[in-house]
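Note to self: the last two entries modelled the partners one at a time, which told us nothing about the interface. This time every component goes in together.
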Amino acid sequence: MSDIKKGHVRKTMKLKTRKTLIAYSFLTVPLLFFLCIRIFPTLYAFSLSFSPENRSGFTLDNYIHLIHDKVFWRSAVNTLLYVAITVPVQIAIGMILALAINKVHRLQGFYRIVYFIPYMTSIVAVSWVWRLMYDPNTGFINEMLSWFHIPPQGWLTDPSEALISVSMMMIWQAMGFCMLIFLAGLKAIPKQFYEAAQIDGAGKWRMFWSITFPLLNPTIIFLAVTGVITALQTFTQIQNLTASSSGDAGGPLNSTSSIVIYMYNSAFNDFNMVYASAITVALFILILIVTFIQLKVLSKNFED
Amino acid sequence: MKKRIDIGGLLVHIFLWAGLIIVVFPFVWMILSSFKSLPDFYHFSFLPDKLNWSGYKYIFEETDYLRWYLNSIVVAVVVTISCLIFNSLIGYVLAKYRFPGAKAIFIVILSTLMIPTELLVIPWYVAGSKLHWVNTYWGLMLPGMIEAFGVFLMRQFMMSIPDDILDAARIDGMGELRIWWRIALPQVRQAMAAMGIITFLGNWNAYLWPVIATSTANMRTLPVGISLYSTADAGGIQWHVIMGMSTLAVIPMMIVFLIFQKKIVEGISLTGVKG
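The predicted structure of the combined assembly is written out below.
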């Protein structure tokens, strides 16, 4: 009996070391991947940002240049404007759409799919379609305005309207995603809550603010966090809406340039990799700060 | 009472249809414009003067469009398969094996989620140039072949698999790799499908890294090809060609989406994040 027990113990011990070995043999390649493709490049980006151009050494020049660079600040302010414009609007529209779709009995699935289509489609392709529609002379949007006797606008060609024009397309693409996530959130709210409120004589408006809205709070936090991070990284839309054979993306007059656009132009049009690295480090820090603040503020609201 | 509800419902439908027009119109415009001839773009018109195939003819005869399509398919398919295998294997090991260092490894992998791609593309490009990986399939695909978010997702789902069935398989003498493949994976089929869809879509639409990592026209992926063709044209923008390229890129994916819409919607709701 005790012999069997001893054998069993030895066997489990051996099994444990065997399992550790197996685990590490499965994880070696992936770990090397994460080190070589994610972690070392991150460190390398930081070290590049402290390097002088075209030689080795240590310098703060890139960051000093960055602080005094008007185009960088313009791009940073634009980036925050993209966040401030698109995130609240797409979340609001997404929520209204989800509430409306949740209300109807017929065609629910149909509405859900069609509203979601823009999010699925290639940003590059839809950017060019919007660029054609925004064309000040022959575009559809100015034509439509003329039906209502509104004078034609410059849209992407007008420095005071270009950023809004890019934002509108971003909202058009993202609202379906917000709608879908809100629908999932709405489905998760137990029906009994509404039944109980109805018995208590609560009106529709009251039910929305006391039940639906508070219970959708985690959904809103999720969409706000992911929306902000995505908007901080805006690149493809701007590149395709504003770049041309005669000029870099971000125009006119840098009015649509974002941090990533400025990084791309610095690295791959001016070939200043060290300066571009400093820009990406600034972006990285901005993302960390914004995410941190957001999680603090929003999760606190949620706890209240 | 009943009648009032019906009117309310009707108003909601009208509201939703108005929104649908805004959502769908750009696609209709894209298709109509692809059949126009270049002079049709000098003034505003809804419909092409007559059905004109010259844009499509140009795409297939004068550009590498089909090659870009093929490149996009190759990149998206290979990266997706790689992610399905590696993410699920790592997630499985981290969820189901107890061994020293497991937690540390998980935290290291998870922490890479905070690193934005923008920070990595310059180091990738600099290192890739030295290794001659720029402008190759390998260079295009490698950075996406394992994804921290997918590992995290897989680990969460693998945790719910009871240890008993894994131990039972061990007693039956099954090898560890086979247990992962035959016992664990079928349990998380839904999460695998979701991850596969998100990875595929993310790579199919990816732009920043492919535009940096390709230097010749024949290596471009579809979004990069369309984008660079459209911006490079010095003799005026060839709108009918660009709209034709966009139509050919968007419509087949839309059909695939409509076929698999239930799975895709489920998948996106399940994970909530696009790749």
